[in-house]
Write a structure and sequence with these properties.
It comes from uncultured Woeseiaceae bacterium. By secondary structure, the chain is of the alpha+beta class. The protein has one helix at 2-47, and strands at residues 54-66, 83-90, 93-94, 98-110, 116-118, 122-129, 137-146, 158-170, 173-185, 201-212, 215-218, 224-227, 232-246, 251-263, 272-284. Helices cover 16% and strands 50% of the residues. It is globular.
């Protein structure tokens, strides 16, 4: 009887140990999955310029080569700036029924003539109603203002307009589009013949694919422009390769980007042939 009792007790202890190990394994797997999901969410937010978070970006872009073909006017296509340093800050303002994402972009330019100065600082506030945020993505619209810049490298005038955005994530993909339209605050009499106070329409498609372990590839800062006066497009094409490092208090986004222009023949302005950007961005949750 004692032997039988000991056998039963031993069997029960063994089963208890097995059950305990199974529970521990399930808990570890659940925690690992939760941590992985949180890291994936943080990675996606680091790539999402419309996410409700603080963002501090510092970038350097060099454009050593421009296309120098002859325009229809008989003049050589002009070159643009040789490089610039960009500082961009996003400061979210969450409210009960909507969120405002004020974004300030400041650039310091240099050109081939050795001139340098501050460009037209861009300020816009993307307004995202709660009903326009569906969890995996969102859309919004808001006012856009450009400040006067140094006349050696930019326009010494104000501008005003609007910006709109749509983004969504699905699996390893993050995609969307950002559109901007602005007008020059200038006396129409001062405009050259055949031009208007309407700036080119900007269309920026967004395509990001996460490769794993924080690495990703995307189409970069690809801003397609449509000039209302000449009714012509300028289309750049680029590739961005970067990595997001998720930390306890925030995320770091490092990337390198190359870009060229593939559609520009009838475009009246400059068209970059080779462009290189180096970037670091730090994002943190709202205070």
């Amino acid at each position: 009887m004692n032997q039988e009792y000991r056998d039963i007790s031993s069997t029960r202890r063994y089963r208890g140990i097995c059950v305990g190990r199974t529970i521990i394994a399930l808990v570890i797997a659940f925690l690992a999955q939760s941590v992985g999901a949180q890291e994936n969410d943080a990675e996606t937010k680091a790539l999402d310029s419309t996410a409700t978070q603080w963002s501090f970006q510092l970038a350097y872009q060099t454009m050593p080569d421009y296309f120098d073909d002859i325009l229809d006017s008989g003049q050589q296509r002009p070159a643009g700036a040789t490089d610039y340093v960009q500082l961009r800050i996003v400061a979210p303002l969450p409210f009960e029924k909507f969120t405002i994402l004020p974004r300030v972009t400041l650039r310091h330019y240099e050109n081939a003539q050795g001139q340098s100065g501050i460009g037209n600082t861009e300020i816009f506030g993307l307004i995202i109603p709660k009903k326009w945020d569906w969890g995996t993505g969102r859309m919004g619209i808001g006012p856009l203002i450009t400040l006067p810049g140094d006349e050696d490298v930019a326009r010494d005038e104000w501008g005003y307009g609007f910006a709109a955005a749509y983004v969504n994530s699905k699996g390893k993909w993050f995609y969307g589009v950002l559109m901007t339209q602005s007008w020059r605050s200038i006396d129409p009499v001062a405009l050259p013949a055949g031009t208007s106070d309407t700036n080119p329409l900007g269309i920026a498609p967004i395509v990001n694919y996460r490769l794993g372990n924080g690495w990703y590839v995307s189409n970069g800062d690809q801003i397609i422009q449509y000039d209302w006066d000449s009714k012509e497009f300028k289309v750049p094409l680029g590739v961005r390769f970067g990595r997001v490092l998720v930390k306890e208090k925030g995320s770091w986004n490092y990337y390198f980007e190359y870009q060229t222009t593939v559609v520009y023949d009838d475009w009246p302005g400059s068209a970059v042939e080779n462009s290189y950007r180096f970037n670091v961005t730090y994002t943190i949750p709202p205070f």
